């Protein structure tokens, strides 16, 4: 529940396993998801 609230606030940052140079880096499976309160 709390994670969904933080996600709506736009405070979720996803560390992707591929850099922006990859054509589908946004669809790449992330290493982890970080939530900032």
Please tell me about this protein's structure.
- The protein has one domain (2-35).
- With 37 residues, it is of the alpha+beta class.
- The chain has a two-stranded antiparallel ribbon with strand order 1-2.
- It is built from one helix and two strands.
- The protein is elongated.
- 19% of the residues lie in helices and 30% in strands.
Radius of gyration: 11 Å
Strand content: 25-35%
Overall helicity: 10-25%
Number of domains: 1
Largest sheet: 2 strands, antiparallel
**How does the helix and strand content classify structurally?**
alpha+beta
Low-confidence stretches: none
Mean pLDDT over all positions: 57
Shape: elongated
Strands in their spatial order, largest beta sheet: 1-2
- Count of distinct strands: 2
SSE run: HEE
Number of helices: 1
Distance between the amino and carboxyl termini: 14 Å
Could you list some keywords that capture this structure?
37 residues; alpha+beta; two-stranded antiparallel sheet; single chain
